[in-house]
């Protein structure tokens, strides 16, 4: 009797498929699934300029979900109102697909990695208490091309939420592309604590002349109105100024022109 189970329809040249490939096939084929994950997906209908709302649905297995984290176990097994559907809101369908594939395979698919989903991956990692997802995703980011305008926003996310793995990846890009990033408007939008971190690394790496660094600090001070009157942020800004003993401040706390 021929076994027609979906997992046996894989490429016949792969005599002994790995555990990862079998689990991934289970997810992608939906074989023997007993629940669904729904994520909101907005699209524009050609006959309706206002747009419509639909859900992208992923066929899943409760056991796979429940064993991924205590939070998921509570959601799919300990929830008295469970109806067979796990609803995930506030993130993109693409990020949920990465999230689910990671649950099944413990890996992040290279082809699904992009900077646009970093924020959503962070949300999912925190919401379902799976920090290893964010660590794995951050490592994969090292191997893709980063648009210049995306570097500081991603670094800001990593710094604000204390994500060391993502910080390290960002800092490699920040040092590597220091000359270009010195002209990027995103630098002026960094919180002063994050700017301090960037300046420290640029100085250690000797990524740019000291005179240019001081010029950037002058611009940052002007854009962010950092004077003696800004009692909340100015004290930390002075910590950066102390890296440069020859820099003097005027009566208002402004860096004197070089």
Give a concise summary.
This protein has 13 helices and 3 strands; from the N terminus they run αββααβαααααααααα. It has 258 residues and is mainly alpha-helical. Strands 2-1-3 form a 3-stranded mixed beta sheet.
Structure write-up:
Strand 1 and strand 2 (48-60) form a beta hairpin. Helix 4 (93-105) packs across helix 5, helix 5 packs antiparallel against helix 6 (131-141) and helix 7 packs antiparallel against helix 8. The chain has helices at residues 19-29, 62-66, 70-76, 93-105, 118-127, 131-141, 148-160, 164-176, 178-181, 186-189, 192-205, 210-223, 234-241; strands at residues 35-45, 48-60, 85-88. It has 13 helices and three strands; from the N terminus they run H-E-E-H-H-E-H-H-H-H-H-H-H-H-H-H. It is mainly alpha-helical. The mean pLDDT is 90. Strands 2-1-3 form a three-stranded mixed sheet.
> Which structural class fits the helix and strand makeup?
mainly alpha
Give the helix proportion (percent range). 40-55%
The backbone outline, from C-alpha atoms, is elongated
Q: What's the end-to-end separation, in Å?
A: 86 Å
How would you sum up the major sheet?
A: 3 strands, mixed
Beta percentage is 5-15%
- The whole-angstrom Rg is 24 Å
**Helix segment tally:** 13
Uncertain runs: none
The average pLDDT score comes to 90
Q: What is the element string, with H for helices and E for strands?
A: HEEHHEHHHHHHHHHH
Q: How many β-strand stretches?
A: 3
| Spatial strand arrangement across the major sheet | 2-1-3
